[in-house]
Amino acid sequence: MRTFIGIVARLIFWLTAIYFVGAMALVLFVEGKIVYMVLSLAFFPITYFLYPLMYGQWWLLLISITSYAVSTLYGKLEPVE
Questions:
Q1: Are 52 and 23 in contact (CB under 8 A)?
Q2: How high is the pLDDT of residue 81?
Q3: 3, 64 in Cβ contact below 8 A?
Q4: pLDDT of residue 40
Q5: What is d(CA 80, CA 19) in angstroms, rounded to the nearest whole number?
Q6: Within 10 Å of residue 54's Cβ, how many Cβ atoms?
Q7: Cβ-count burial of 40 within 10 angstroms (0-12 exposed, 13-18 middle, 19+ buried)?
Q8: What is the pLDDT of residues 16-34, one digit of tens each?
Q9: What is the spatial distance between Cα 46 and Cα 60, in angstroms, rounded to a whole number?
Q10: What is the rounded distance in angstroms from the CA atom of residue 65 to the CA atom of residue 20?
Q11: Structure confidence by residue, pLDDT tens digits, 35-81
């Protein structure tokens, strides 16, 4: 059961990470800022933290970080390196 909870929590983390980075890349693409779009994809860990703070989705960032902690500490999944 712990492993299942860990897998679900890690899935929540990755879905929010893909959402944050993809949404930022899409916003930059629509604005015609292709170089910035490529940079936002290349430096996705920074984008992961900046996008929710810039667009008022800090609560979703907290859920994402908490789910990663749950997957690692409770679910006993290996940390992503």
A1: no
A2: 75
A3: no
A4: 94
A5: 18
A6: 12
A7: buried
A8: 999 999 999 999 999 999 9
A9: 16
A10: 13
A11: 999 999 999 999 999 999 999 999 999 999 999 999 999 998 998 87
Long-range contacts of 6-9 (CB under 8 A, 24+ apart): 6/70, 6/71, 6/72, 6/74, 6/75, 6/76, 6/77, 7/71, 7/75, 7/77, 9/67, 9/68, 9/70, 9/71, 9/74, 9/75
| Count of all residues that appear for the chain in the document | 81
Full-model pTM? 0.89
Residues in Cβ contact with 10 at an 8 Å cutoff, skipping those fewer than 6 apart: 67, 68, 71, 75, 77
Whole-angstrom distance, CA of residue 51 vs CA of residue 77: 26
Domain boundaries, the chain: 2-74
| Burial tier of 58 (Cβ tally within 10 Å: 0-12, 13-18, 19+) | exposed
